[in-house]
């Protein structure tokens, strides 16, 4: 007999540049642990980031802006990524890069505005009429296909639902049968069906089935109380941009066909300022009535020096509006020109003085040899490589001389070299060989400098 192991549904993670970061790594008193959650060193910036994350969660930081400033490779993007993980999935986090605003079709400020609204969430509580209960039967009733052919088609579905108070049999439309299949509903699951829209949501498995298997990833929920047909509070999280987009082309549905239709529509329907104001009005009304709650999230603009003077002025204004997210900026520039401004004025971080004045600035500082060693050790683990102690300190000293990023990037080629040499663990020679194969930025710049005449300029 063949027995196959069922893989659980956790996706095999790809290794990206921040895969090893799992959070800011603070202890319960709010101090940064030297090494925690994949983060090493950079304690002040991490503590600052955690204060920001706490204030965002307490909704007391909206309309403020923070700048992470520091040399390349000192972990600015990594910290922003960790903040998003600390905030959890319910608080919107919208990352963008300064250069994203340059498009030939959309105005720069429009791109910024759209991202601003992506970063503001709205939690809507609605009381909806639903049918809720444990599924006792699903019986599709077949009929001859009305279009001819051999296939049978479903005319209706009989669904039995049970609650602590009673049971009900429902006759459902075939379209709901498809949603039942999509949600993988089986007998014994607890589900609810919205009466108006017919959308199906699987809540979990009934806990009377809890002892069925020893190992299971399913969530067990108790049998619902009350009647099968009742009113239930449904909580939905949307962003203001979702509302804008939905109202700009209201014909869209939930099913896959209309979603595809939306993607393939050649022209993007414009979201006008007027529409946004209308939506703000409705949103404000909902908030006053208490049916909705505003959740200011985070707009993260990396490489902020890529924005130009128009965008910066726009940011000034947008930060002062009543509905505004927290804006986190990052830049690795020192003194440089502000794009679009007259060429003489230099500004710190490429940001004009009036915006700079509105920012809280957090510095990230370069790493020590020991810190780089630990970062490399963590990275090696994430990439599934084993590395000798001496090789690790060799790579770390290369990191001090060039950059953390270069040292991290050397790990994979070193692993390949080690494999070619028939070793299972990376040794000093492999790191050296890899660093000879691939230059770091300083070495490459030196070569260019020494042989300027041979290069095109
Ligand atoms: N303190 C740290 N602990 C662990 N890994 C780190 C730390 N700081 C940086 N890294 C890792 O080093 C690499 C470079 O960091 P990151 O991309 O955050 O730099 P940056 O400050 O955004 O640089 P740039 O200014 O060039 O954008 C990333 O892979 C990051 O995950
Ligand atoms: Mg970065």
Automatic annotation (TrEMBL):
Gene Ontology terms describing biological process: chromatin organization; DNA repair
CDD domains tied to this protein: AAA
Location within or outside the cell: Nucleus
Keyword entries, A-Z: Activator, ATP-binding, Chromatin regulator, DNA damage, DNA repair, Helicase, Hydrolase, Nucleotide-binding, Nucleus, Transcription, Transcription regulation
Domain named AAA+ ATPase: residues: 62-366
Source domain of life: Eukaryota
Reaction it catalyzes: ATP + H2O = ADP + phosphate + H(+)
Keyword Transcription part of the UniProt annotation: yes
E.C. number(s) listed in UniProt: 3.6.4.12
One GO CC annotation: Ino80 complex
Gene3D superfamilies registered for this protein in UniProt: 1.10.8.60, P-loop containing nucleotide triphosphate hydrolases, RuvB-like helicase, domain II
Alphabetized GO MF terms: ATP binding; ATP hydrolysis activity; DNA helicase activity
Function: DNA helicase participates in several chromatin remodeling complexes, including the SWR1 and the INO80 complexes.
Family: Belongs to the RuvB family.
Name of the protein in its database record: RuvB-like helicase
Lineage, top ranks: Eukaryota, Fungi, Fungi incertae sedis, Zoopagomycota, Kickxellomycotina
């Amino acid at each position: 007999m063949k027995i196959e192991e069922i893989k659980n549904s956790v996706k095999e993670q790809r290794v990206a540049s921040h895969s090893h970061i799992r959070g800011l790594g603070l202890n319960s008193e709010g101090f940064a642990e030297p090494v925690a959650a994949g983060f090493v060193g950079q304690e002040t910036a991490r503590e600052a980031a955690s204060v920001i994350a706490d204030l965002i969660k307490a909704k007391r930081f909206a309309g403020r802006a923070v700048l992470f400033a520091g040399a390349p490779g000192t972990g600015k993007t990594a910290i922003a990524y960790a903040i998003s993980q600390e905030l959890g999935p319910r608080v919107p986090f919208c990352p963008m890069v300064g250069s994203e605003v340059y498009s030939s079709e959309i105005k720069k400020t429009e791109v910024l505005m759209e991202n601003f609204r992506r970063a503001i969430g709205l939690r809507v509580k609605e009381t909806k009429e639903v049918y809720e209960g444990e599924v006792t039967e699903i019986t599709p009733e077949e009929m001859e296909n009305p279009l001819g052919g051999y296939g049978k088609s479903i005319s209706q579905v009989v669904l039995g639902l049970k609650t602590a108070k009673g049971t009900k049999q429902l006759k459902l439309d075939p379209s709901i049968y498809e949603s039942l299949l999509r949600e993988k509903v089986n007998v014994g699951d607890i589900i609810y069906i919205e009466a108006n829209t017919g959308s199906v949501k699987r809540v979990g498995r009934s806990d009377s089935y809890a002892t069925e298997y020893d190992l299971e990833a399913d969530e067990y929920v108790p049998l619902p109380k009350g009647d099968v047909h009742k009113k239930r509070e449904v909580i939905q999280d949307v962003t203001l941009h979702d509302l804008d987009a939905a109202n700009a082309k209201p014909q869209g549905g939930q099913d896959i066909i209309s979603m595809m239709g939306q993607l393939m529509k050649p022209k993007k329907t414009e979201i006008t300022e007027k529409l946004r104001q209308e939506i703000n009005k409705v949103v404000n009304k909902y908030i006053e009535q208490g049916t909705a709650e505003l959740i200011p999230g985070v707009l993260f603009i990396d490489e902020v020096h890529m924005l130009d003077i128009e965008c910066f002025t726009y940011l000034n204004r947008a930060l002062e509006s009543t509905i505004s997210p927290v804006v986190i900026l990052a830049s690795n520039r020192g003194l440089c020109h502000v794009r679009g401004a007259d060429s003489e004025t230099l500004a710190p971080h490429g940001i004009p003085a009036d915006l700079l004045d509105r920012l809280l600035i957090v510095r990230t500082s370069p790493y020590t040899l020991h810190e780089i060693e630990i970062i490399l050790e963590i990275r090696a683990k994430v990439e599934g490589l084993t590395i000798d102690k001496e090789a690790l300190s060799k790579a770390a000293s290369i990191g001090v001389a060039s950059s953390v990023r270069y040292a991290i990037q050397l790990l994979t080629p070193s692993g390949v070299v080690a494999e070619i040499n028939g070793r299972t663990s990376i040794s000093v020679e492999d790191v050296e060989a890899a660093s000879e194969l691939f230059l770091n930025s300083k070495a490459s710049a030196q070569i260019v400098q020494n042989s300027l005449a041979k290069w095109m300029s």
